Every structure is written in C-alpha cells, then in structure tokens.
Amino acid sequence: MNSVTGDKFFPKAIAINVKTQYGAKGDGITDDTKAIRKAIRENHRKPIYFPAGTYLVSDRLEYRNVNGKFEAFTWIQGQNRATTTIRLKNNAPGYADPANPKAVIYAASSNDGHYVSKEYLERGEGNQAFANYVEDITIDTGNNRGAIALDYLASNLGAVRNVTLRGKGVVGLDMSRGLMGPALIKNLLVKGFDYGIRVYSGASYGVTLEHITLDNQRKVGIENQDNVLAIRDLSSTNSVPAVRNNSAVGLIALVDGNLQGGNSSVSAIENNNDGRLFVRNVRTSGYRSAIKQNGQVVKKMTVSEYTSSAPFTLFPNSPKTSLNLPVEEPPAYHDNNLSNWANVEDFGARKWADNNKVDSTDAFQKALDSGKSTVYIPLGTYSIQRTLHIRKNVRRIIGSNATLAPTGEAFANKDNPQPLFRIENGAPQAVTIEHIWINSNSPHPGFIGFEQATSRTLFLKDIQCGTPSFKYTFRNTKGVGKLFIEDVSAIGWQFEHPQRVWARQFDPEGSVRRVFNNGGALWILGFKTEGYLNTIIHTTGRGATELLGGALYYNVNVSPTDVAFINNNSRVSLSYGTVGFGVTQSKIHVRETRGSKTRDLIQDKLLWRGEGRAVPLYVGR
C-alpha cells in the first residue's frame, strides 16, 4: 500500500479553514461540532479544510440546505491523515447501539425529484450524490460501539482518498444506502470495527477500491451484496474473511492481494450464493484456503488466476486467462509553497453574473503562462471562448468544483473541432488537471474537452465533462505520452493513436461511442456507463484493452443490432455486469474479429444477474 501522503496546504480562495475562519480548536479537548457544522453549512461545494489537529465531535457531520434537505458536494479535506483527526467523543449520545448505528461523517445525495419517497429524503439517498470527497484525514470513532466512521454515498464523481478509519464501532466505511456509485476509494486504512467496508447498495453501479488495508475486523473485511466491486492491491490482516460476496447479483474483480489470516477454519475470500468472482495474483496465509466458492473450499493458498465460472471465449484457441497488463501509478504533485500558485481571478478572470458571460479566456491563458507551478480556479462558472494552451511551467490546474463553460464560435464547427485544453510541450514531465466541471446548456458540435499533443504525461482527475452535442472529451496526437484517468465522468474518448492509458473509476456516458482504442494499451479498474449503450469500447489496430469490474446500466432500449464491445484483431479481457429495469439490453455483448472471421458473444449465453447479465471474464486474443 502507498505510504501516508505529506502535508497539503491550500489558498483561502480554494478552501475554507475551520480553524482560522470558523474557530474550531482542533485541540482534542474542545467540542468542535458546532464550528465544523457551521463551516460546512455556509460553504456548500467548497473544500472544508482541517489543518493538523484533533477535532473532537459529539454528533454527525453532514450538509443540509436551509430547508433541511440533504445536498451533495460535501468535501472534507485534511492537511495530512497522520496529523489531522476527527474524533468522536467517547460514549457520545446516540452512538451506543450497534443495532442502530450512527455515522461520524455522512455524505448524501441531493434530490431533484427522481427519488422523493420519505425514506430517501430522510436518509439522503439517491443518484445525485455528486462530488462528495473525503481526503487526507483520520476519523476515529473512539469508544462508541454503535458508531460508523464514514457513511458514504457518491454518484459518478466522488472519492475517499488517503484516509484512516479506526474504532470499535459497527462499520468503518459504510456504502449501504440506495444507489451507491460509481465512486473511488483509494489509499484507505481501516482498523477495527465489525465490518471494515460494507456495500449493500444495489446492482446498478459500481465501486472502485485501490490500495486498501484492513486490520482486525470482527466479522469481515469487505462485504458486498449486489454491487460491482473493482479491487486492486488489497492487504488484510484478519482472523475473519477478508472478502465476502453474498449474492449472484454481486460481482467482484480482485487483483493483487495479500491476505494474512489467523484462523485456519475460514477461507480468505468467501463467494456465496453463486456470486460472480474474478481473482488474480492473490496470496494468503493463515487461512484454510484462499477461496470458498458456494460452500466448497478451493484448496489453494495462492491464486494466480481464478474465475467463478469458465471464462467466455469466441475462438477455440483463445487463452483462458486475462491480459494482466502492467499497471502504473499516476503522478503525485502538491506544491505547499503558495507563492507558486496563480489565481485566474488575479489575471482578470470573472465569474458569470446575472448571465453576463464575460469572456475569461485571455485571463486564464495569462495565468497559465505566468510561470507558476499551480493554477487554481475558485468556485464559480467561467466563460471560455477559445482553446487554452497548457505549456511552460504548469504542473497542476485545480478547481474547487469550478465550472468552465465553452461559449465561443471556435467550438461550433463539427468538421474542425477544437479543444478547450490543449496540453503541449513544457518544462514539467507531467501535468495534472483536477476538480473541474465542463458544462454548457447550448450545443457545441465542434467541442473537445482535452487534446494531448505532447510526450508529457497527463493526469485527468475528478473531472466532469457533460457539454451537450459536443464532439468528444478527449483525443490524442501521434507520439503522445502516458495518460492517467481517475474519477472522471465524461463521454467520447478517442485514442486515435497508440497510447498507454490507465483509468480508475472511469464513467463515460451519453449517446455516442464511449471509448475508441486504436493500437493502444488501455487498462481500466472500475467502469460504469449508462444511457443508450451502443458501442462502449471499440478496440482495434492490434490494441489491448483490459476492463476489471465494469457496471453497464441500461435505462433505455437498445437496438438488437448494436454491439457493446468490439474486438477487431486485438487483445481484450473484460470482467463486468449489466443491469436494466424494464428495457431491452444489448443482445450482442462482444463482437470479435480474427482475420476474416467474426463471431458474436450474445446475451443468452451469459450468466444470470438479476435484471441483467454477468461476465466474470471474457478473453479474446
């Protein structure tokens, strides 16, 4: 697992400081509940920043609007999880009963009319839980047997990163409310609790977990009911099962695990009730075995690769194992010298006011060319009318849920599309762009979100790109560098030229082809898409695509001639599940071409998954 990250400091225009601006003490003695709640309530959508300290609380931290309704966009940001702790008072009122547990931090969904039942309103459930983030902090539930450290909900965008959860309560990380996912859980340590991580939230979406450490749970490390879980780099030290999958609707893809146990009567991984399971490169010790499948012990302690049912193939000479593409970590960069940060508003950028769409293009470009390492965009909506060029010394562009709105004629010509961001040559070897929303209410048929035109590495993180009638989100040029995608919701990815790409919590949506991989190497951990699912991933040009833990949600009828995945003389391995309620799903899941021969993998041949189908593993190469 990755080590604890270093300190992170932010300028006032980005984050709200609970100490200096709201009077929280962080001394481990004073009850800071009231101050923290006030900071959250008065600064919706902004990061709430906790400098080093121990913040004692006695009740749940959450966001509700002036009408008392839950809202999304809650962002808890610590300085460093090694030095920043939110700690629940011992024996706090309301936290004594394990049968009626209560959370310390509670991330919820907004409500726009999709789900208006009393239960959903009361629990903050729904599929509008956008951009809920908890990062770089420790949550300690103290001596409270009925506590949940973090009751988390996210939709399309959202992450728990660099977080430690510890205590004697019921659950460390609870994701049991309705319509959980997709979301990213990364660099998480859970110490104690009955359940380290619990996911009971339904079949429609998925959760991506990477670099997870579990220690000393009383019942199970990770328990999944019906969700799709994509897990990589799981470390567990437990006398109880590290992973349990409880239903045929649940699908888990687990790669790279080290599961140490102290109980020879149980297996490290339990896959019950015809659960769907794919496991690769997992080592165990101290357990009876690595896997127990439907009550039967699989007598192996080390698993090079295991599938709960025979892998699907279309040609007789296809291998029966996944691609196992090499994995790399994205670049990490945070400059704590705030004099190296450039605020776009200091260069003349202005937010929209009363629909006055002031053009901020020149101001943004001046900030980008200022020589600063980090360019930041305060919360608000900014009009951009031409391409922004990323060059010179820029290493990071960060918004605080800021929105960029393409408004110029430059994005109108579908035959000559232009990017909003063009990443070009410059001094740093890598560029990170994060926490930005790209939206517009008017069509822009010649709009592209990002164009990578450099051998430098690009990292796209915590980004939503949803402009209607646009060309696509991303395209590359010849000879480009590496691309990392993490917690991104955006449609239309054109890897027109060979490129090495690693995607984590990848959510391409909309009504056009989601991903086109021409000759590249594309690795995906955690994938969700919905809408009119025609071609989802098209791999050609002798490319390679590996998908681990995909969730395909059908909410409209699909033509019987549409194909979900195309494998054209390339290498592909897929692990995914589908779901759809009252609609026609893809009849043809995979179309594979080898030379002049083409064969189809059709829905009727696949495994039952409630209102959908399951493919623990398809291999074509």
Describe the structure.
The protein is mostly beta strands. The strands form four sheets. Strands 1, 2, 3, 4, 5, 6, 8, 10, 12, 14, 16, 18, 20 and 23 form a 14-stranded mixed beta sheet that branches. Strands 24, 25, 26, 28, 30, 32, 34, 36, 38, 40, 42, 45 and 46 form a 13-stranded mixed beta sheet that branches. Strand 45 and strand 46 form a beta hairpin. It is globular, with a radius of gyration of 24 Å. The two termini are 32 Å apart. The model has no long low-confidence stretch (mean pLDDT 94).
Features:
single chain; 621 residues; mainly beta; 13-stranded mixed β-sheet; globular
Distance between the termini: 32 Å
The gyration radius over C-alpha positions equals 24 Å
SS field, number of helical segments: 3
**Total beta-strand segments:** 46
Q: Tell me the overall shape.
A: globular
Uncertain segments are none
Mean of residue pLDDT?
A: 94
Share of residues in helices? under 10%
Q: Output the structural class.
A: mainly beta
Query: How is the biggest beta sheet arranged?
Result: 14 strands, mixed
- The proportion of strand residues reads over 45%
Describe, in short, the structure shown.
By secondary structure, the chain is mainly beta. A hairpin with a 4-residue loop joins strand 45 (607-608) and strand 46.
SSE blueprint:
Blueprint: E1 16-17, E2 27-31, H1 33-42, E3 47-50, E4 53-57, E5 75-78, E6 84-88, E7 102-106, H2 118-123, E8 132-140, E9 147-151, E10 158-167, E11 171-175, E12 183-192, E13 195-199, E14 206-215, E15 220-224, E16 228-238, E17 243-245, E18 251-261, E19 269-271, E20 276-285, E21 291-293, E22 296-298, E23 302-307, E24 341-343, H3 361-368, E25 374-377, E26 381-384, E27 388-392, E28 396-406, E29 418-426, E30 430-438, E31 447-452, E32 457-465, E33 472-476, E34 483-490, E35 493-495, E36 500-507, E37 515-518, E38 521-531, E39 537-540, E40 544-554, E41 563-568, E42 571-580, E43 588-594, E44 597-602, E45 607-608, E46 613-620
Parallel strand pairs: 1-3, 2-4, 3-5, 4-6, 5-8, 6-8, 7-9, 8-10, 9-11, 10-12, 11-13, 12-14, 13-15, 14-16, 15-17, 16-18, 17-19, 18-20, 19-21, 24-25, 25-28, 26-28, 27-29, 28-30, 29-31, 30-32, 31-33, 32-34, 33-35, 34-36, 35-37, 36-38, 37-39, 38-40, 39-41, 40-42, 41-43
Antiparallel strand pairs: 20-23, 21-22, 42-46, 43-44, 45-46
